Amino acid sequence: MRKQAAKKMPLAPDPRFNDKLVTRFVNNVMEQGKKSIAYRIFYDAIDRVSQITNENGYEVWKKALTNVTPAVEVRSRRIGGATFQIPSEVRPDRKISLCMKWLIRYAGERNGKSMAEKLANEIVAASKGEGAAFKKKEDTHRMAEANKAFSHFRI
């Protein structure tokens, strides 16, 4: 058993926007430790977003993140031999983590040539309140609403 929780490592802000949130997003995009490629994918995606929308790509990305961020989620809990889906509020740190992972996952499942192109399209869709990542948030909220009757079993 641990005596205390693991310490969070401080993140360095990214070189272009000087934002720690971007670094966190890039760390989620990164595969096999290839951070420079992950940065290239992210920056290309942001440039494409600004071309598509004729707005600041960084601002559109931030709007997409807020649109995809969940407020509640369901957690499985076994009670009396039955498994219930219990709605619970999401911790602030986990909210950010979930929205980033959903954006990246559903961007990867899109049709397109490069990951940057797919990510750009998913960001634009999420900023408008469309796309698979936004649908995932809506489904999560709908599931929590449907199981509100079991909220007295809170963990």
From TrEMBL:
Please name the GO terms that the record assigns under molecular function.
Answer: rRNA binding; structural constituent of ribosome; tRNA binding
Q: Which PROSITE patterns match?
A: RIBOSOMAL_S7
Which protein family is it in? Belongs to the universal ribosomal protein uS7 family.
**The keyword Calcium is annotated on this UniProt entry:** no
GO BP term, pick one: translation
The answer, when asked if Kinase is one of the entry's keywords, is no
Q: What is this protein called?
A: Small ribosomal subunit protein uS7
Function, as annotated, reads:
One of the primary rRNA binding proteins, it binds directly to 16S rRNA where it nucleates assembly of the head domain of the 30S subunit. Is located at the subunit interface close to the decoding center, probably blocks exit of the E-site tRNA.
Small ribosomal subunit protein uS7 domain segment(s):
1-148
Keyword entries, A-Z: Ribonucleoprotein, Ribosomal protein, RNA-binding, rRNA-binding, tRNA-binding
InterPro entries under this entry? Ribosomal_uS7 (IPR000235), Ribosomal_uS7_bac/org-type (IPR005717), Ribosomal_uS7_CS (IPR020606), Ribosomal_uS7_dom (IPR023798), Ribosomal_uS7_dom_sf (IPR036823)
What is one cellular component GO term in this UniProt entry? small ribosomal subunit
Highest taxon listed in the record's lineage? Bacteria
Quaternary structure, per UniProt, is: Part of the 30S ribosomal subunit. Contacts proteins S9 and S11.
